Amino acid sequence: MTYRFLRQLVPIALPFFAACAIVHHDSPPAAMIAPQQIQLADDIHLANQDWPSARWWEQRHDRQLNGLIELALANAPTLAIAREHVSQAHAQVELIRAAAGLQSAALAEADREHVSGHGFLSAYASHDPEIGAYGPWYWTGLVGLEGHYDLDVWGKQNDLVRAALGEQSARRAEEAQAELELSVGVAQIYYGIQTTYASLGVLRQLRELRAFELDTRTARHEHGLEASTQMEVARAQLLAIDQQLASTSEQVVHAREALRALAGVSSGDLPPIVPAPLPVPSAALPSTLSYELLARRPDLQAMRWLVQASFDRIDAAKAAFYPSFDITAFFGFNALRMRDLFTHSSQQINLIPGLTLPIFDGGRLNANLHGARTSSNTLIEQYNQAVLDAVRDVAQDGSAIDDLERRVQLQQQRLDALALVSDSAEARYRTGLADRATALQARAPLLEGRLALVELSGDETVQEIALIKALGGGYRNEDLPLAQAERRAQQAR
């Protein structure tokens, strides 16, 4: 029936189509980033041949770290906000889908009405039982079912639904990004605390050495064997170590508070963090980068979904220039007197096919299309910049890890040399060829070197986690074909 109606309506409406609003200005879409810009420079090489796993932190085999991340994933407000955004986007999809479907409602109405003596029902303003007039006051009634359906001939509603679905997919990718940032943040703070614990251990050993040296210098001074200058130098060195110990201990307090706030828990709910050895660097990293990075980074996936949704909104804005068709129907009872409402003669049936032609709208449709196009181009440029930033992050983090690895190796070689000097001084002390103070003085540079190595190892661990984040963690989403957004952009040119 609808098809026959359209066949009859379209020839009648064709003469009016020429009077529809016309697209005056529509710029082409912005160009999306070229594939060669999603690659690392030739002088930057990543270590291994694989990508991080979904639960990358479990590869560290650290129960404390696993528990802290799970606690954060369950309680962090930032993640809760991201999940609410997903729920809100889903509700928007359902709302737009509902608007595109059949709308029906049950109607019931009673009206106390005074009939005008000069209106359309003027005959009923007087009392004339022969024509059914008992005026001028009446109780009128209406009851029935009403339905309305918009015929989406040009696909406008489908475009809006696809745009809402793209928005929902973007919010899901943003939720994955929030999870990634949360897990990375917890791990970096945790390993920062472990690095601080290791530094405190070395500092305490160094303090014992400086304290013994001060005692030795003090005894010598008291026996007139040494000037007070050496004693004061030793005292200053000990005070410097005490200051460093106090500052380092305060770093643990600050880091715990940062971790508590990030996890979204109270001080009592955050478990104690006991010292644990730093892990050996073992990140799973790809050897090269390409389009694979786009599917691995949740923030890039979110941007791609938003670009895809913007194309659908442009299509919907274009469809608004075309005529729209709808059908409204009513079946029920309508009577001037309530006692006649449900009689057979009071039945009322309405079937109203409608056609709306946009002709003069003051530029509203063109402004709407221009706004949709501008928003889309802005999203494309933001996406392009996000891709460039992603490649930059991977390049910088990978290069930083290479630099830290070289520095760790050099520091280890330096420690080997210092250990040889310290062992030689200790051996001379045991054989009576040197005193205890001389042996301890030779050990001090070794402890200072170990402290520097601990800090370098901690920096390397934190930088490795930063690279895992730059690679998208273990996220992977192939719901949106890789070149689909690019293809849609080319089609719109």
UniProtKB/TrEMBL annotation:
Keywords of the record: Lipoprotein, Membrane, Palmitate, Signal, Transmembrane, Transmembrane beta strand
Entry-linked SUPFAM superfamilies: Outer membrane efflux proteins (OEP)
Keyword Membrane recorded: yes
Subcellular location: Cell membrane; Membrane
InterPro entries listed in its UniProt record: MdtP/NodT-like (IPR010131), OMP_efflux (IPR003423)
Range of residues in the leader sequence: 1-21
Keyword match Ribosomal protein: no
Topology of the protein relative to the lipid bilayer: Lipid-anchor
Database matches in PANTHER family: MULTIDRUG RESISTANCE OUTER MEMBRANE PROTEIN MDTP-RELATED, OUTER MEMBRANE CATION EFFLUX PROTEIN
Entry similarity comment: Belongs to the outer membrane factor (OMF) (TC 1.B.17) family.
Protein name per UniProt: Multidrug efflux system outer membrane protein
